[in-house]
Amino acid sequence: MLHRRNFLLLVSVLYLTGLISCVGPLFSLLQYSGLATGAVYRSHEIFQKLWTDIEADNSSSIQLSSVWIYKRKLKEQKPCSFGTTASTKDSSGANLYLIVDANGGLNQQRSSICNAVVIAALLNATLLIPRLEFHNAWRDSSEFGDIYDEDHFMSTLKDYIEVVKELPTELMERYDSNISNIQNLRVQAWAPPRYYLEEVYPVLFKQRVVRISPFANRLSMHLPSHLQFLRCFSNYEALKFSLAISELAKKLVKRMIERSSNYGGKYISVHLRFEEDMVAFSCCSYDGGQVEKSEMDVVREKGWGKKFKQKYRVIAPGLNRKNGKCPMTPVEVGMMLRGMGFAKDTPIYLASGKIYQADRYLAPLRKMFPLLQTKETLATKDELAPFEGYSSRLAAVDYLVCLFSEVFVTTQGGNFPHFLIGHRRYLFNGHAKTIKPDKIKLVTLLQNTSTSWIDFKDQMGSMLAESDRKGIMVPRAKKSTRKGSIYSNPLPECRCLWESKRTTNRSNSYLMVDH
């Protein structure tokens, strides 16, 4: 009887658990299927309603030279400590080799490369030029040397670690000349230095070579200052884009400056994440109906297999939009910028991959900003031909053109703005000079069909002021989170570490003429 009661109790608990797990997602779907404010995409409808007012708005326009008011206060700068530089390499590491597979897109791979330099120094190992992993979503087969200058990378780091292009012949023969046969270590995410010393080094010492794959996010954001220095040094000095990428980027920057003569050569850059794969990955719905849904299902299946069809996965487009997780459409970007006070003739560079249904979605943005430029409009077909089919190389060109814009607009987050915002802070004395929209507020405004252009402009003015204020702030984040990343918030740490190397003539000169 006791066993029977326990069995019935267990069945009841399992039943209730299953009921809750089913009802919870169902409740979310019902709640955000269109009833909640901000859950439905109506931006095109709002644009059509307000277009006459937008077009007729002749109020004073904001000048690119006076967008940013806030300055980094001196009291926020911590005094530099010149005794915390990285140690020089130990020649005994020549017999130990570290291999990493850098996975993800361009800037996630960049993070992995910088972290690999740190780990190689920590373990006193020689680093094999990092291998870039191929992914179905990005479908870019580029190797390290296609994106970065290998020789510059190796020579710049020579005082700290040794970097080689190939493993010794005798070591390769041990593994039948196949790197895949080398033992792969699965390292925990955000692992501290102690983990590598206690778990990875013993294997490395025994085998002479280890491979870590995947390597993204496999090192803690918070490190001792001498190791953080190597991150800074790798990111801002050792990683120089290849000649092909830097030369094309220089041409595009020059052409943008020429087209911005009315604004003193200053321009806005917008990182728009409205490519087909991003729309699919976000699980958001726009105004394409069943056709759009079917297309996105196909893209998700092709890029991520069964990931989005697993039992625990609940796709709730309305909830995603209300929470500000949906990629902004071109019309939303245009309305936001016009609402902030940027005039019709403002020069804008649009950094993006292939826009989903580009003709349809880009039309309103071009209507609001006729001087809109892209890689395709600035470069000739012959100039772009060597880059076609290589998303990471094209993203690298976009990165450099955005880096030197007066205003950068990020619309969706991710590693591209994560790194670029940090790089701009590094170049512009601590100010990111970046517009980060409050997308939760924005989707609410763009669902309200009674919104007037005057009210919308007031809200956008406040949003721009908030971006200006936050552009100089340094988040106080705990643990190994992206908010505490040295890549997005390099000051004061990177600047101090950089200053500490001036006695050895290692100054930062990340200028277009060199990079």
TrEMBL record:
<dbReference type="InterPro" id="IPR019378">
    <property type="entry name" value="GDP-Fuc_O-FucTrfase"/>
</dbReference>
<keyword id="KW-0119">Carbohydrate metabolism</keyword>
<dbReference type="GO" id="GO:0006004">
    <property type="term" value="P:fucose metabolic process"/>
</dbReference>
<dbReference type="Pfam" id="PF10250">
    <property type="entry name" value="O-FucT"/>
</dbReference>
<keyword id="KW-0328">Glycosyltransferase</keyword>
<comment type="similarity">
    <text>Belongs to the glycosyltransferase GT106 family.</text>
</comment>
<dbReference type="InterPro" id="IPR024709">
    <property type="entry name" value="FucosylTrfase_pln"/>
</dbReference>
<keyword id="KW-0294">Fucose metabolism</keyword>
<protein>
    <recommendedName>
        <fullName>O-fucosyltransferase family protein</fullName>
    </recommendedName>
</protein>
<keyword id="KW-0808">Transferase</keyword>
<dbReference type="GO" id="GO:0016757">
    <property type="term" value="F:glycosyltransferase activity"/>
</dbReference>
